[in-house]
Amino acid sequence: MKFKKNTAIEPDINLIPFIDVLLVVLIFLMVSTTWTKFNEMSVSLPSASAQVPQDSAATWVVSVSSQGLYAVNGSKLEGRTLQDLNNELSGMRKSEASLLIKADASASHQSVVNVLEAARLNGVSKIAFATQNTPQASKP
Questions:
Q1: Contact predicate 97/88, CB 8 Å
Q2: Sorting pLDDT into bands at 50, 70 and 90, what band is 124?
Q3: pLDDT at position 24, please?
Q4: HSE (CB half, 13 Å, CA atoms) of 74?
């Protein structure tokens, strides 16, 4: 009896097409990806003195509460819209007056932007933000 010899057939793996496909995918990813570089900015923050401006009569004060309510020179506004602020600031003498914004630390960003937009619509270019002094650590 003659038996067949089982010869193991060695698998032949061709890596060249696999490498070609990987290179095409790599090139596609490199071309389609947007490369952004995040830069850090070196910012020197301004310092302010606690002196009161000389022409305080020409300064309008807009207060913004944490709930988004507005007060112009101490009188509360009924509305919260840009149009309400615009109507209230329309009495400013634009060439001489300056605007001081006193916003609560937890006031929404949109509330403060509404004040800035109302000032822009009324032609006011002198705008300042009120801050409070933070206690500094004792220096040796």
A1: no
A2: confident
A3: 96
A4: 1
Number of residues written out for the chain: 140
Distances, alpha carbon 47 to alpha carbons 82, 98, 131, in Å: 31, 19, 11
Helical pair 109-121 and 82-89, crossing angle rounded to 10 deg: 40
Amino acid symbol at 48: A
DSSP-assigned letter for residue 106: T
Q: Quick one: fold of 58-129?
A: Nucleotidyltransferase; domain 5 (3.30.420)
Which residue shows structure tokens 């698998």?
11
Domain ranges of the chain: 58-129
Which are the contacts of 113, defined by CB distance < 8 A and separation ≥ 6?
A: none
Percent of the chain, pLDDT > 70?
Answer: 74
